[in-house]
Each structure stands twice: as C-alpha cells, then as structure tokens.
Amino acid sequence: MGGMTATASRLLPLFLLLAVLVPAAAAAPPPVSVRYLADRQLFVLDGGPVTYVVGVNERGELQHVYWGGRLWRDDDLRAARSMPAFDSTEPGTNTTPDEYPGWGGGRYFEPCVKITRADGVRDLVLEYDSHRISGDELVIRAKDIASDIVVFLSYRMDPSGLLRKQATIENHTGQIVTLESAQSGAWLLPPGDGYRLSYLSGRWAGETLLTREEIHPGIKLLESRRGVATSNQANPWFAVDGRGRATEEHGQVWFGALAWSGSWRIAVEQTPHQQVRITGGYNTFDFSYPLKPGESLATPAFYAGYTDGGFGEASRILHRFERRVILPRAGLAHPRPVLYNSWEATGFGVTEANQAALADRAARLGVERFVMDDGWFGARDSSRAGLGDWVPNRKKFPNGLGPLIAHVRSLGMDFGLWVEPEMVNPDSDLYRAHPDWVINFPGRPRSESRNQLVLNLARDDVKEYLFGVLDRLVSENDISFLKWDANRHFSEPGWPERPPAEQRELWVAYTRNLYDIIDRLRARHPTLEIESCSSGGGRVDLGILARTDQVWTSDNTDAFDRLTIQDGFGQAYTPRVMMAWVTDVPNFNGRTTPLEFRFLAAMTGSLGIGANLTKWPEADLDYAAKMVAFYKTIRSTVQDGDLYRLAPPGGTLASVKEYVSSDGRQAVVFAFLHSQQYGRPQPAVRLRGLDPDAVYRVRSLDGKLAEKLETASGAYLMAHGLTFDLKGDFDSTAVVLERE
Ligand code: GLA
Predict the structure, then answer these.
(1) Which of 88, 119, 459, 663 has the lowest CB atom count within 10 Å?
(2) pLDDT of res. 46
(3) What is the dihedral of CA 95, 96, 100, 103, to 10 degrees?
(4) What's domain 655-739's superfamily in CATH?
C-alpha cells in the first residue's frame, strides 16, 4: 500500500504535465508532506531536502526511526521494532531509540518528562494513543500506561526541512502531578560514534563564540540556569556533523535551536549503545512545576533541520527560516534602518542638548533612526538609581521627551528609546512603593547586580503594571523603537506570595509573561519595533526573535573582536537582526582600528553608529556619510541574502564573508585582515553562490583588488576567485558584484 502511495505521488505530476502542460518544475515533490503509513504505524514527515520518521513499535512506544536526507519510497521504511536487552544492566527499554521518553520503566538516558505524583508515584511510561494530521502538522497523543497523564507531541514540518517539535503535558488524573522535567523533544542521530558538536558560548563582551568538539560517551550540557535571559554564557543552538566531518559547504549537518529566553537546557548525550540523543527544553535545574487536575504545561518550540551542504547551508536554512517564519512581520522586505545610539557617546549623561547635537550629526550621515540609550528617566545619573521610574528626568528633559523627539523627527529620523522594564534599583520610587515586587526569598539577602533587582514578572500585578507603563510611554510619545534591555539574571529566585510547592513555576512564568507583555505591546502599537538586548547579546534565541525585530549582539564593539562574535552569531541567526555599531577608538580593550575596518565590520550585519559624533573631524563625518550611503546600496543583500563564510576571522589570512541577494542580482564581499606578515600577499578567495554563466560588474569600494576587474563571469569568480590587496594591520575592503 505504501508502494502504491509512492507511485501515485510520483505519477501525479506527470498527469498534470500531460493534462495542463504545466512547466516541468511542477514535477518536484510537494515541499511538505506529512502522512501516516497505517500498515507499519509510521509517521513520515517530508520537508524540502529532509525526511523525518517516527514509528510506534510493538510495545506501543514511540520510537525514532529516521532523520536525514529526503526519501521518496515508502517501501524502504520498516516498522519500528524495539531493541532487545543487551544484558541485565541494559534492558530493551534503554537500548530502544525512544522518541519522547517519560522517566519510567528501565530508562537511564535523558527523559523528556519526569514526574512526581501527589501519591508518591514517580513512574511514567508513555505509549502512543492516537494522532491527527492537519496540513503540515502532526499531533501525536501519548498517554501513560497506567494513569491519565497525557502528552501531545506536535510536529510541524517546514518546506526548508526544519521541523518544529513542541510538547504539551496534561494532567487528567485526580491528583497533583509535579513535573520535574518538561522537554520539548529529543533529536536522535543515526546510531554511531565519532560525531562532532558545534555550539556557541561566551560571556559579557564575548558572546556567541563557536566551539567544535567531539561527542564522547556521557552528556554535554549546554544550558542557562540564570532566568531572565537566554544568557551571554551559552546560546540554545547546536550543530552536529559526522565522522566524515562537514566543512562550510559540504557534508552532513544536523542542527537546531530552541525558542526560549529563560533557563533552558540542551543535553547532548551519547549512550553506551552509540546513540546520540539531543534533548532540549526547560532547564531541569531547580525545576518543579505542579499541575493540578486539568492543568497543562506547554514546552518551548525546538526547531531542527538537516543538510548535506555543510555548516554554511545549515546557517542559510536557519537564516531564511527566521526571516520567513520567525521574525515579526516576517516576509515583508523592509530594510533595517541605519541607527544611531547614544550609549557609548554620552553614557548616563544624556541631556536634551547633547542628544540634539548628536542627532544633528547623525542625520547628516544619513542615519534613519536616533536612539537615546540609558540615563533619560527618573534619578538616573549612574547605574545606582532610577531604574523602574520610567518618567523623563526633569533636569535633563525639563519639557519631557517631546522637544527632543520633535527635533529628531524634523531631521527626518525616527526616534527610539532605551528601557529596562524588568529591573529596579532599590533607590527608585518604584521600589520604595513596592519592595515586595522583586524576586526574593523572605529573610534572605536580595543580592544586587549592577545595583539592581529583578521584578517578578511572573506576578500578574507586576506584569499588568509594566504593560501599562510601556503602553503609556509609547502612546504619549512619538516612539518608533524600544531597545529593551535586561542587565542581570535571577538570584534568590523566590516567589513568596505563592505556596512553596508552586514557587518554582517562576522559571517558566517569568519568561511567559515577558513574552505576553511584548506581544500585547506590539498588538497595540503595530508599527513599534523592538531590539532585544541583555547586557549585550544575552537575549538572543528563536523565542525572543518571534517578537523583536533585531538584537544587540554584544557590548563589545571592538571591530576585530566583533568579527569572531558575529561569525558565531551568524551560525544560528540571520545578519538582518545582528546589530553592529561603528564606535570610537581606542575601544574598551585598548585596540584601535581604522574607520574603514570599523564600518565594514558593522556593515556585515545591521549597521548602526554609536560614536561621539560631536567630536569627529569633518573628514571623518564626510567619510562616514559616504559609507552609510554605500551601505544603503547593499543592505538588502546583507540583511536578506544568503551568507557564505568564505574564510574565518583570524590572523594573517583575511577573513572573508560573501552575501548573495535572494534574486541573485547582487553579491557583496567583505574582507578583513588582522595582520600581514613578511609582506605576503593574500591568496585568491573563491566566491560561492553565483551563477557561473552570468557576467558580473565588479565594483571595488576602495580599489583594494590585486586584479583590476571591470567585469567577471560567475565561473571565473567561483573557480579563480578574487585577490584582495590588503596590507599591514587591520586592513579591509568590500567588493560589490552586480549581475549584468
Ligand atoms: C547594557 C546594554 C548597553 C547599554 C547599557 C545601558 O549594558 O548592553 O548597550 O544599553 O546597558 O545601561
């Protein structure tokens, strides 16, 4: 029967071709197909280049069957069969590739759900119960073998092959069931060892640094236990390649990202039976979520995909998906505006006059959005006071924000404002009025960080208050953009108003309510745009990206450091959302780079300027205006095109990034040299993603090409390449190719 289905689906396009003479392209298989093969109890999800198969084995367990390149012949697929016991220490329950295991029976690997019932029972064995398929979504209902604990597993397949997994755990028993682990799902690789894990970690001023290491037996935990944000310390993205080792452009890569901005975990586990399982969802550390009868908990979404086109293609698949599906107003081609931000120029010392002077200069450069950062509100002259009091500081803005905003608007820019709504300084009117609104354990210290405490957004009264404050701020002022910051993580994570057994719901409820505030704010102010920031790049994940337009990548604005931070960032996230500013030198780390290097490094993402322009000489302002104008000619390609990482950031060889517009008409290449040695010239760098048969007009930004080409074929550019004439330290260049 399966064979007939396959044959029919392969013949159908032929019939169509004969009948209505549609173009041959229609013969391609449907981009997404989700189906159930009843004879083998298999669920087959096809999307673009990927097939994912889950089955129900003879014990009624959901079992992973296949994840990899697209298959077309159902006859190739065998029914799921549980594995035998290996020995007395490894029962069959532990050797079988469980798709979504409860912790129960003899299972020793990472469970997807772990419970304690009010009656003390902690055993949970999930079995297939029923399913429904609607379009691109499969929902499997699994149920405990001996109680009414039910899990709905949702699988949604995207035409890119990215599969979204999400689980909802429901308690239909008559007693409280406390969840101690609630994971979104597990991704299983073809059995074997020798896999390699790529992940992003770091800290403040050094986020999203890429590490690659072999997966060994045991568990590698990527996680945040911090609450508030995704964290600067680790990012919920992974990529795995196999023994053959993938490169940027070749080889098998399985990759994924979790959509959650609170405490999360991704456990990369190799079992004693060479099964690699990647299980992700809420962090289980300090996790406890009681479900009363009738209650449920939904996990975050966990997306993953597969390609045999290497790490570069894995990134491009994610980037396109983020732009098409995840981002608000996804699919609308509107370039990110060039932005100015005051933070590095004026710090907490913002005034109407100094902001107006910066705005004058910014407008002259072609900046489209002026953002006033920290320092504009309450008694905010340093990090010590004022957080929580979102009213303009009277001394700095005697007539409110209106006059400054009007000035900015008169210069043709829109206006953005920094806020840090989730936080409070103890020295603030808000804290004096509501000391109970912060996260705390009674009778214990309230540890401050940057002199601030975290408001308990999980409380509905706090959530409503914050929504009201922000709604008023945006309604009463002509504000187009909020830079939404969050500069510390949880400590003493208590929620004293709740019974002790429910206090740890905080880990989930905080982030959920944060999302709720942003969602409602956006719904009320549909043109408002938001940047996600958390001490630099601490809140970047697919959960926050579904409700913000861009993110602050790192407080480290040193252009050379940024190349590595941005390279890691781009593994997972589209350059469209990656904010990068040109700032003054020497930077915080003492490094001085030329203005061209700083501009070009920032242009590889969404360009901003964060320098004190009132101190810039005329020549620099003129140069900057030219660079901003140049950026506007290439920004759609950078922001919405395909990224090729041609050479990594590094030492004596140039780091090279290429972007190709989605219509193929333009490509932009950036090259950055850290330091030349021995007068050695740069080797040619071969481009990618061009049409070999097309001819491109070659436009060098600054003449730094060894070979002065006016035009070149795609074949030449991809086979021979471009040779950049870069010398000395921190030299850089850009080349634009326009298809003729
Ligand atoms: C954080 C942000 C910075 C800036 C400051 C303001 O550190 O990452 O960009 O907004 O806060 O206090």
Answers:
(1) 88
(2) 98
(3) -40
(4) Golgi alpha-mannosidase II (2.60.40.1180)
